[in-house]
Amino acid sequence: MEILTQEPVRWQSASNALLGTFWSCGGNSPTNSTTTAFASPAPADTYWGTFEEVSQYNVSLNYFERLWLAWYTYMNNDVLATGIMSFVMHEVVYFGRALPWIIIDCIPFFNKYKIQAAKIPTAKEQWQCAALVLLSHFTVELPQIWLFHPMAQFFGLETSVPFPSPLKMAYQIAIFFVLEDSWHYWTHRAMHVFPYLYKNIHKIHHHYSAPFGLAAEYASPIEVLVLGLGTVGSPILYCAITKDLHILTMYMWIVARLFQAIDAHSGYEFPWSLHHFLPFWAGADHHDTHHERFIGNYASSFRWWDYVLDTESGPEAAKRRRERKLAKAKKAQ
């Protein structure tokens, strides 16, 4: 009788991070007894074929973790996999978040919420802005994004599964907001304090005195690089110090930062705007005033730097300064 032998299932690595093991950002050895193993099958002909194989042998992972593992396994090239995922995510989030504001600009009902109501961007302005932003994305940001994975590996960011807990990601992202806001305040302020920096770098961003969502990244390549250091550098610095950061947290942070930047440039102030509930949150009214007056309100997400260092802009800030000046004069008498 003929004996049939079954060919053993072949396994191969998709990456060092997805070899079927995961370890801490601090670089613990994969031979450590606490290591958890996950099977990473040889890439199938299609992504969904790979996903089915990953799902079959990694039942302990949730659906999104299996999607993640299947992507890296299918691509079989970490730099390419991370580069494509990062760039697509950035474009989808940026233009996806800007789209509602474009629609709102076309609906007269919302004009009453427009901070500078007489300056509704035209379709031509929106298209011109989108064209320059796209050019910047492909010529300036794409190379940076493509180099992100090697840089992330150098600083020890995890790319493995399972993912960190939502609570852990939340407090890390909160830290990144504070760090980025500080970087943004000082670099942005420097671009206004020094005429050379304003004229040669920052002026292009002030092309629109009444900003709109798409204009969040309407800036010179140098400004994109400099201010982008706060967005990318804050998590990298955190990981370099703590040795504890997952690349998914980085992605969630980038998404949150894009939402913040686009909303701050939206030009709309609603009764339900976040700063009404979190008084220290900057929001659109804070940044819109900066674009209108070309001075003050240098921070990105929070109001405390401008408040403490007396760089707030707008009628209310001017009124408070006059009151303080009068009070000081009375004391001196």
TrEMBL record:
GO terms for molecular function: iron ion binding; oxidoreductase activity. One of its GO terms (cellular component) is membrane. Residues 174-311 form the Fatty acid hydroxylase domain. InterPro entries: Fatty_acid_hydroxylase (IPR006694), Sterol_Desaturase_Related (IPR050307). Transmembrane segments: none annotated. It is found in: Membrane. The keyword Hydrolase does not apply. The keyword DNA-binding does not apply. Its main location: membrane. GO terms for biological process: lipid biosynthetic process. Keywords: Membrane, Transmembrane, Transmembrane helix. It holds the Pfam family FA_hydroxylase. This is C-4 methyl sterol oxidase. It comes from Botryosphaeria dothidea.
